[in-house]
Write a structure and sequence with these properties.
binds calcium ion, EAL domain-containing protein, binds ligand C2E
């Protein structure tokens, strides 16, 4: 038994080393990707249900490696967060999206409001405020075009700093959206502590909202609470007409998901923009 225990430990150490090595390699490759422009933004259209038209996009990052493989953000954002590279990733994304929005506006298109995912790590240092306002000015993007999405991740860690950053950027004219709403346990207190303009109902509720009575009531409750607080509501991950039907009836005003459109490369958005978002 002792021998067996020993070999288990070394096998464990082996896998540990393996994981650490993979992470170190990924971190190195990501650093390279940031400098050499291998990170690319896709844009997922958002639909306003009352107007029946496009009302904005969510920018979603993709890593296109030299060999053509595309790596999902789910596989590298956590590594970026743990290594501190997230600071550079977030700034890269901000710059890239502002540049795209400026190009659409200059070409006469109306992209509505464009949402950017910001890691809560970026809400720990106040210099992000200057970075964002300088970048807006540099690209001549009206602040009202930009919405920043955060999950509740680290919002409670450094409340004063996060509040100051959010209020200062709101004063500049940007909007704030709380992502994956309903999944964490302090969601309600966040709505009071931070200046959110929108909440995004998490896909896990939307998934079976038309079948699961509990998720249906939670979704209805979230929507009516948001309305009474004057906060806009968007549902993510809407894939079917049944889900859409439920959300319409529950008074949800915007949706995003494969039902309307998957995330698209920037140049595929132009057709949609030219047609006012009617697919
Ligand atoms: P998220 O912000 O919750 O983004 C929504 C995810 O759901 C996206 O995955 C999107 O492609 C996917 N999705 C959209 N519609 C549907 C649908 O109808 N059904 C299903 N099953 N999925 C749908 P993606 O692009 O892989 O992004 C994963 C996560 O990575 C994002 O979750 C976000 O937390 C993070 N992320 C993505 N882009 C960025 C970025 O630019 N910066 C940062 N910091 N994080 C990002
Ligand atoms: Ca998001
Ligand atoms: Ca989300
Ligand atoms: Ca989600």
């Amino acid at each position: 038994a002792k021998e067996q225990g020993k070999s288990q430990i070394s096998r464990f150490e082996l896998t540990m080393n393996d994981t650490v090595q993979k992470r170190v390699a990924l971190e190195r490759d990501l650093r390279h990707a940031i400098s050499y422009g291998e990170l690319e933004m896709f844009y997922q259209p958002q639909l306003d249900l009352r107007a029946g038209a496009l009302c904005g996009f969510e920018a979603l990052i993709r890593w296109r490696m030299a060999d053509g493989r595309i790596i999902s953000p789910l596989d590298f954002i956590p590594v970026a967060e743990e290594s501190g590279l997230i600071r550079d990733v977030d700034r890269y994304v901000i710059n890239c999206v502002f540049q795209q929005v400026a190009a659409w506006l200059a070409a006469g298109y109306d992209p509505g409001e464009v949402a950017i995912n910001i890691s809560t790590y970026s809400l720990q240092e106040h210099d992000i405020v200057a970075y964002i306002s300088d970048t807006l000015n540099r690209h001549h993007v009206p602040a009202a075009r930009i919405k920043l999405e955060v999950t509740e991740g680290l919002l409670m860690k450094n409340v004063d700093t996060a509040q100051r950053i959010m209020n200062d950027l709101k004063a500049v004219g940007l909007k704030w959206s709380i992502d994956d709403f309903g999944t964490g346990y302090s969601a309600l207190s966040y709505l009071r502590k931070y200046p959110f303009d929108q909440l995004k109902i998490d896909r896990s509720f939307v998934e079976d909202v038309h079948l699961n009575l509990e998720n249906a009531s939670v979704t209805r409750a979230i929507i009516s609470m948001a309305h009474s607080l004057g906060i806009a509501v968007i549902a993510e991950g809407v894939e079917t007409a049944e889900q859409l039907g439920f959300l319409l009836q529950a008074g949800c005003s915007q949706i995003q998901g494969y039902y309307y459109s998957p995330p698209l490369p920037a140049n595929s958005c132009v057709q949609l923009l030219a047609d006012d978002g009617v697919l």
